[in-house]
Amino acid sequence: MLALGCDHGGYALMQEVKAHLEQQGIAYLDFGCSSPDSVDYPDYAVKLGKSIQDGCSNLGILICGTGIGISIAANKMTGIRAALCSDCFSAQAAREHNDANVLVMGGRVLGPGLACKIVDTFLQSSFSGDERHVRRIEKITEIEQQEEA
Length: 149
Ligand code: RB5
What we know:
Ribose 5-phosphate Isomerase B, Chain: A, about 50% helix
């Protein structure tokens, strides 16, 4: 299941992304926000991250104004690999190399056309499973474990 989350800076772009997903019949869980009123982006990163940690979702899309704050917040969560992408090449590599489980975009950075192409690329790509990429992701997991100890 795909999870969605945004703050007010990402609200308008998220409406475009939702319409694009619906056109393709792609189901999603929507963790808000639900209006352009000002909110705090870490709250939405946590809601979406918990959904992935709980196994309710396997992939997510987060959008704030720049994509920066919400990606920093999401990447503090164990098991979350959030990739801030502004191009399709990065979105593909994020899945194939980094096994990113969250795509992050900047609602004040990207137009809807490019953003929807980035979403399609991310969702249509998958982890390569190459040994070197597995090894590097395992090292990221080790960093998390050391931080939690
Ligand atoms: C909100 O104004 C803005 O700071 C937020 O959406 C995001 O860009 C933070 O990184």
